[in-house]
Amino acid sequence: MNPENPGSTESDNNGGRPGQWLGQIGQDARYAFRQFFKTPGFTATVVITLALGIGACTVVFTAINSTLLHPMAGEKTDRDVLLYETQLPQRPQMQLSPPTFIDLEQQAKSFEILAGWTGQSVTLESDSEPLQLRAAAITPKVLDIWGTQAALGRSFTPREFADRERVVMLSYGLWQRAFGGSPNVIGRSINIDDAPATVVGVISPRFARYGSDIELWMPLTFSDQQRTQQRGAHYLQTMGRLKRGVTLEQAQAEMNVFAANFARQYPDTNKGGGIVVREFGAYINRSLAPMLYVLLGVVGCVLLIACANVANLLLARATVRQKEISIRAALGAGHGRLMRQLLVESLLLAAMGGSAGILLAEWGLRFVRAFGPSAGTDLARLAYVELDPSVLLFTVGFSLLTGVLFGLAPAWLGSRVDLNEALKQGSRGSSDGGARGRMRSTLVVMEVALALVLLTGAGLLVRSFAQLAQVDPGFVPAQVATVQLSLNGKKYSNRTSRTQFADALLERIRALPGVEAAALTMLTPFNEPGYTTFELVDRPASAVERGAVFNLVTPDYFRAAGIRLLRGRVMDARDGVSGPPVVLINETFVKQYFPNEDPIGQRIDLHFNKGTGPVGEVVGVVRDVVQGNPGSPPSAQFYLPWATFPINRFMVMARTTADPAVLLPLIKSQVYAVDKDQPTDAARTLSDLMSDRLARTRLMLSLLVIFAVIALVIAGVGIYGVMAYSVNQRTLEFGIRMALGASRGDVLREVLLRGMKVVGVGLIIGLGASLALGKIVQSLLYHTSPRDPLTLAAIGILLFGVAFLACLLPARRATRVDPMIALRAE
Q1: Contact 44, 359 (CB under 8 A)
Q2: Residues 341, 6: contact at Cβ < 8 Å?
């Protein structure tokens, strides 16, 4: 057999021995590489097309693998659950109270492990400046269920929990940042909130996907009062691992029994309450999952377009190589051998495309990681996605499957030749009719239809994002600097010390150049709001518990945030210091609770932690502001003076006439001037913080637009390739027609009509698919219909224009055919 032009032998036809078969595969591979080097343009086009499709799929699968399939750093199990309490209808989700947790830990039969933790802010003294850290006080089983091990030192011992010893474990990042990665940190005494604690271990760097903002761990033990008297204090986040064989439904049934017993035994705190068990992965990814699964469908369409394009190129190439294949068949190569040769070429192209796709995926993951906003948000987990062996295995297998997918039909059609007809044809190859022509037209229709679906989805999201960006948030985020503070330790254990610190700090900040207003607030306007219940004084009790979002602010908060007063007055420096508190409410509060009366002077009986709070008088009405996600409907909200309840964790806000980023270090310096040992945290501009709220939509928009543009380019290249090969095959026909009197315009029109007819069918099918699939993206849209006629028309015109250009270039080449040269060549 000639290795340059392999034919067939008897052993080929009968299968041969395994060694012979492998030798023939190697021979086919060497022959394929020689063909690739002879046509570098074709090879590069196929590899780049496949790399784009496979790389996009790898990026999205990596994100899904890291966040949805394997959200934990340790054991991969579907038995992990989260537990929370409810008191419907006003409190659909609350963390567990310590007595409830202890009862479940001791008595529940459904769980193999039950673990609880509570987040808090602590101050770490360091050699340079104090650090504000996010810490977690944990029960003994938390590290087991998180699958977290010590990279250095050890975990907590049972005795340290029982004796309430002051020991801590550091995150890997804090160990590197604050202690230089020194192994001598183990056994070292450090000061946490003005009290010494001993470092016993460093958490493995693999722990990052859940609770990624935690930098310090300490044992959590309960006092006798917490064990028995704090059923109304819901602050314990709880996670469990079901016993083997126990279903989620069985665990929920057991929790229903516990909840009913608690309601009978403790009616003051647990009446009407419940305990809910939720699957861990589904719960923590409830906002990420829809986005990632939509993107998985998108990249699947991109890969299908890429496969269709490559299949078209291979069909065209098989048409050009038909005489070569016919000669090999005439020399004895069987149909199976010819088909195997073409499949080997497809698989090698897929392997090269997959290798290039992995490189593109690594670049794409850097892009995704760059979009991860501050720790503590759902998108923060995307900052830790990375290629791992399972993803690489997926990419390799996917590449081979792709090679079979796009190579099977061209190999089947390309290896079936009519020797008599093929050998009679001229050197320019065979025509493009029959099964091959129909297959290539079908693939173009599919490319156009899928590209239209993706472009429509991207266009709808762009329009939706534009609508969202125009939403009036009710405040003015520009020119505002914010710094987070937590007053910890014995120094600030009472309200007087916290109030004195706040007064001194605000006085210094107001004196800074360019500062127009400075204030403290429990939370910024768009943060997830706090919630409490209340009663209206002198009104009959409502059958449905009344509730609203609340905030604690100092008097200048409304000037600093740019929130407009609509009626009455804002609070002043005297409010909240002595006497009953004053209350400001928003527009939605008025519509919901005082629809037909003057709200000024109304009195509200405030509740906190299910206890009875003071009675506040409404003195003003302010505009609604965005709470939670931008575009979400406003909630009823009221504001109380910070001096009434001077909490220890708050945000400093300062409005300036200068660049707010310049003001941030000045605010921090004023904090140190008041207390040199007081750390600061999260120094950001208000505009940057608000931008984080749009991060998910912006990431979705960016990726969808990128994938849609890739699909558009691939589809355009595919249409151009089909038309170019068609024109190339019909050169003799065009030469004869022009020799017989056909004008260049006739040829141009005929080629364009043939190409655009196929494109038109694809556009019609794509439009129908876009309308049918509109509900899938509807949840991602804001004030935009999935059937928006403007978007559909614009996208249709864009794709039509690209397709027209892709057809026009080969059509113009057909008009430049010289009849004499074409006839002489044949």
Answers
A1: no
A2: yes
3-class secondary structure per residue, 129-178: CCEEEEEEEECCCHHHHHCCCEEEECCCCHHHHHCCCCEEEECHHHHHHH
User: Distance between CA 717 and CA 802 in Å, rounded?
Assistant: 10
Distance CA 453, CA 707 (A): 12
Q: Classify residue 311 by burial, with Cβ atoms within 10 Å: 0-12, 13-18, 19+.
A: buried
DSSP state letter for 625: -
147, 203 Cβ separation under 8 angstroms: no
Q: CA torsion sign, 220 to 222 to 223 to 225?
A: positive
CA 774 to chain centre: 20
Give the number of C-alpha atoms closer than 13 A to the C-alpha of residue 739, restricted to the C-beta side. Answer: 13
Q: Is 384 helix (H, G, I), strand (E, B) or coil?
A: helix
Measure the CA–CA gap between 21 and 820, rounded to whole angstroms.
49
CA pair distance 431, 489, nearest whole angstrom: 85
The rounded distance, in Å, linking the Cα atoms of 432 and 414 is: 12
d(C-alpha 675, C-alpha 673), whole Å: 6
> Quick check: 700 and 461 in contact, CB under 8 A?
yes
Q: Which residue has the tokens 């390739």?
A: 721
Q: So what's the pLDDT on residue 543? A: 58
**φ, ψ for residue 116 (rounded to 5)?**
-135, 155
Residue 6 structure tokens: 């392999």
What is the rounded distance in angstroms from the CA atom of residue 526 to the CA atom of residue 690? 7
Exposure of 445 by Cβ count < 10 A (0-12 exposed, 13-18 middle, 19+ buried)? Answer: buried
Query: Do residues 810 and 727 touch, judged by C-beta distance below 8 A?
Result: yes
Nearest C-alpha neighbor of 456 from the set 765, 136, 31: 765
What is the model's pTM?
0.71
Distance CA 458, CA 650 (A): 39
Whole-number Å distance between alpha carbons of 173 and 198: 18
- The 10s digit of each residue's pLDDT in 584-634 is 999 999 999 998 889 999 998 876 544 456 788 899 999 998 877 777 788
20 — pLDDT class (breaks 50, 70, 90): low
For the chain, the 3-state helix, strand and coil shares in percent, each to the nearest 5, are 55, 20, 30
CA distances from 648 to 305, 519, 640 (A): 57, 15, 16
* Residue found by looking up tokens 């409304």 in the block: 558
Q: Please give the distance of CA 258 from its chain centroid, rounded to a whole number.
A: 36
pLDDT in tens, 163-215: 778 899 998 888 988 888 899 999 999 988 888 999 999 987 766 545 467 88
Q: What is the DSSP string of 77-145?
A: -S-EEEEEEEETTTEEEEPBPHHHHHHHHHH-SSEEEEEEEEEEEEEE--SSS-EEEEEEEE-TTHHHH
Matching residue, tokens 């054991």: 75
Q: How is residue 66 annotated by DSSP? A: I
pLDDT at 753 over 70: yes
State how far the alpha carbon of 184 is from the alpha carbons of 150, 181, 215, in Å: 15, 9, 18
